[in-house]
Design brief:
alpha+beta, 10 strands
């Protein structure tokens, strides 16, 4: 799904990180194993199906694992399948998404980006965006965020206009889980690509592997990921469960 390719070493690092995220052994996702792995946790609050570099992983309570064993991955990737499996356990949809990663600095042609990490401008950017977009990106809650602005951030006579924002949280000390947010009226102008390049460069300078998660129905996010140099690696589908 992408012309980009990841280095073998990067793939090993990503597998290692996701094995830990899913509660598997550190080498569980290395080459040479079975096509699908299961992790059973009867106290789990999530039912999650992940595909990563050709491997499949299902993590959740025993009743879900047992019910899913006979189902093909093409069905388990479908959000409606996990909702059906978990209906009697209060399953609530969390989404069906594609996973992307990159290990090269993005190529961006244009003037140097004027960015700031001012939290007030992150909030101002979120106010320019639809609530659903704000909730999906979660830019205001990430550990490291920058905002691309119009004009000079040192001007005293007017607040700079936030055009787009990007940032990341650190997962397992290895992955930089990337968030990007752009107001509808500022899209298709290169702003998201510019600020994403800044965030990715900072993440890679910190020794992290950038990760991008885009909803399967969000083609704009998928397109931005590819333009930023991310390679498609798999999918994640999850539902929240009622623990009572």
């Amino acid at each position: 799904m992408s012309d980009m390719e990841l280095e073998a070493g990067t793939i090993s690092i990503i597998r290692f990180a996701w094995a830990r995220l899913l509660g598997l052994g550190d080498g569980a996702l290395d080459d040479g194993g079975t096509d699908r792995l299961y992790r059973t946790d009867d106290d789990a609050g999530l039912l999650t199906f992940v595909t990563l570099f050709g491997r499949e992983i299902l993590s959740g309570p025993g009743w879900a694992v047992d019910a899913a064993r006979a189902l093909p991955g093409t069905e388990l990737r479908d959000h409606s399948t996990l909702l059906t499996l978990s209906r009697e356990h209060g399953g609530r949809g969390l989404g069906e998404a594609q996973l992307y990663f990159c290990d090269v600095l993005p190529e961006f042609e244009g003037p140097p980006a004027v960015v700031t990490s001012d939290a007030a401008l992150v909030r101002a950017l979120e106010q320019r965006c639809p609530p659903d977009d704000v909730a999906e990106a979660g830019l205001g809650t990430v550990e490291h965020a920058v905002v691309l602005v119009a004009g000079d951030t040192d001007e005293d006579d007017a607040s700079p206009l936030p055009l787009a924002g990007a940032g990341y949280d650190v997962w397992e000390g290895i992955l930089a889980h990337t968030a990007v947010l752009t107001p509808p009226e500022e899209r298709r102008k290169g702003y998201a690509q510019a600020v994403t390049a800044v965030a990715i460069e900072e993440a890679m300078a910190a020794g992290l592997v950038p990760q991008w998660r885009a909803r399967t129905d969000n083609t704009a996010s998928q397109r931005t990921a590819r333009r930023a140099g991310f390679a498609y690696a798999g999918t994640q589908t999850s539902v929240a469960l009622d623990r009572t």
